[in-house]
Amino acid sequence: QVQLVESGGGLVQAGGSLRLSCAVSGSFRSINDMGWYRQAPGKQRELVAGTTSGGRKNYADSVKGRFTISRDNDRKMVSLQMNSLKPEDTAVYYCAADVSVNWQTVRTYWGQGTQVTVSS
Question: pLDDT tens-digit profile of 4-39?
Fold first, then answer.
């Protein structure tokens, strides 16, 4: 069983910063791509930032220059540093990981979600 546990959400004023972290645990062969998604009320879930196992990163245009994704392969963790937060960043943030559970099977696992609220 693979689990993703997130931490670090909360309430912050516009212009402030938050750091989200996600730890992967369980039995599996390897972790491939990891990423952070968000879903605001009434909107579809969208990719915020992603990182490959080799360290390549990509960001949504709306967060470029403000958010930074990082991963620690030894600790099986991925983090999202969010700076210069805006009210429109308010959403539930989800961690996701593509996990090779064995030599034949890759599955996507999701965290439980953490609320980020940015007040104006």
Answer: 999 999 999 999 999 999 999 999 999 999 999 999
Tokens, residue 8: 């670090």
Using alpha carbons, list the distances in angstroms from residue 46 to 6, 14, 16: 17, 21, 22
DSSP-assigned letter for residue 87: G
Please report the DSSP string for 71-85 in residue order. Answer: EETTTTEEEEEE-S-
**Residue 89: closest CA among 40, 49, 34:** 40
Give residue-wise pLDDT tens across range 89-102.
999 999 999 999 99
Residue indicated by tokens 């983090």: 79
